[in-house]
Amino acid sequence: MVNLLDPNVIVTRMFESGKFNEMLNYCSKLLEKNPNDLMALQNSGLSLLNLGKFSEAIIFCDKVLKENKFDNYSLTIKIHCLENLKKYEDVIRCCETILAKDKNDVWALNTKGMALNELNRFREGIEFYDKALKIDEKNITALMNKAKSLSFLGEHQKSIDFYNMAQIVDPSIKELAIAKAREFEKLGLEDEAILAAQGVLNKNMEKIKLDAKKNQTSVFHQFCDSEFEETKNKKK
Predict the structure, then answer these.
(1) Which of 56, 96, 124, 159 is the most buried (most CB within 10 A)?
(2) For the whole model, what pTM was predicted?
């Protein structure tokens, strides 16, 4: 049976209800009784993060980290606050602390890569996406951000390839199709850009282009015809 008076249960219920001010007040009362209450310090930081009070949240995180510099919960909250404050050098340092304890922490690898991107250090950022992809080759965050980094570096064909990989992993992310289309446009490949914007994977583009040429129509009309035929066949 769940103990409804357990502080962890109370805080969790407030968090799930989005009652962040109440959560902060409750944690403040716990800290009046015990200034070193780890749960209260951590969740004070979490509530302040959700209230958009990033600098204040960091103060609570630092109190925990003073006692345990590897506290993952506080480091994660602090990183989110630093990202909102655009303090990317500090984000990198926090990620390095996490990675010092666990070099295979995919979230920290990706987060460090994204911070490097924000500092226009795209080549360095790619190194960390590659490390994440060695651990999880289907990691959508790493695939998307490596594609973005390659685009900034002017390596548009490679960027296309990684956007395409990300689409295969999660075709529901609509922004991937648009981003890939823009990369084709940068290469002057208008037909491919049109197909990419419709969500067509790279491996399927050539057939549509060939069919369009054979039928003397545009690639967009050929795509529409192909989609119509596919839908009609599914209904049979």
Answers:
(1) 159
(2) 0.88
**pLDDT tens per residue, range 135-162:** 999 999 999 999 999 999 999 999 999 9
